Amino acid sequence: MNLAAKTKAFAINAVCLSALSLSATVHAQNPVNLPDQVGPTMTADPFTVHEKFEYRFLQTVGLHGYLGAAAGAAIGQARNVPHEWGQGFEGYASRYTSDFGTNVARQSIEFGLETALHEDPRYFPSEDKRLGARLKNVLLQTVVTRTDSGREAFAWARMSSAFAAGAITNAWQPESTDTPGRAASRGCFMLGGDLGYNFLQEFVPFFRPRGLRH
Q: Is residue 22 part of a domain?
């Protein structure tokens, strides 16, 4: 394994371990309710099941879904991963279709789980305007979610759907990228994407759901 490959592997493992470590720490403190983990945030009426479906539908076929798949495909194209798909338009189209399919799988799983577990899919921006508090909010709401009753809980739907969708993607991946390790890496990258999307929603109101853009 050359230095570049070792560096990429180290980075992936670091992201995975960080996410899992933070998840375990938060979950261990209180597996059901997590009061005082997240600071003061904006509030909104809880979503109905229909509103959760609309939210996940837009995350699938809205701007977020299309741009996310386009960005993921571009990264795969630049890295030539998987190499069996080659370069050019056909290679990019295969990678785009794969990433879009992964997102469809994840959004479907997440909708089912958050409906069953009464979890709210939204990110709630901090009301504390100090930079440190806002960054903490971005980080914690990657592994903590708000329930329909307004409490804080471990984000089972978000965490589970990321790794489940990563594993499902193996169904259409070529031999070089259909391994359990690759599936876990995809899950980590998806959680990293959630972290980045939280950051955008915290600091750029345009990216928030309409009810939280103030």
A: no
Number of domains in the chain: 1
- Give every CB contact of residue 62 below 8 A, 6+ residues apart in sequence: none
Q: How confident is the model at residue 210 (pLDDT cuts 50, 70, 90)?
A: confident
pLDDT at 213: 84
Structure tokens at 137: 């909010």
CB 37 within 8 A of CB 29: yes
Q: Assess whether pLDDT exceeds 50 at residue 60.
A: yes
| Beta carbons of 124 and 146 less than 8 angstroms apart | yes
Of the CA atoms within 13 Å of residue 204, those in its CB half-sphere come to: 7
The confidence band for 154, taking pLDDT boundaries of 50, 70 and 90, is very high
* 14, pLDDT greater than 60: no
Is cis: bond before 82, omega within 30 of 0? yes
Please give the structure tokens belonging to residue 106. 């994840």
pTM of structure: 0.82
- 182: tokens are 């690759």
Three-state secondary structure call for residue 164: helix
What pLDDT does residue 3 have? 53
The answer to whether position 185 is within a domain reads yes
- Beta bridge partners, 144, equal 154
Q: Are 139 and 191 in contact (CB under 8 A)?
A: no
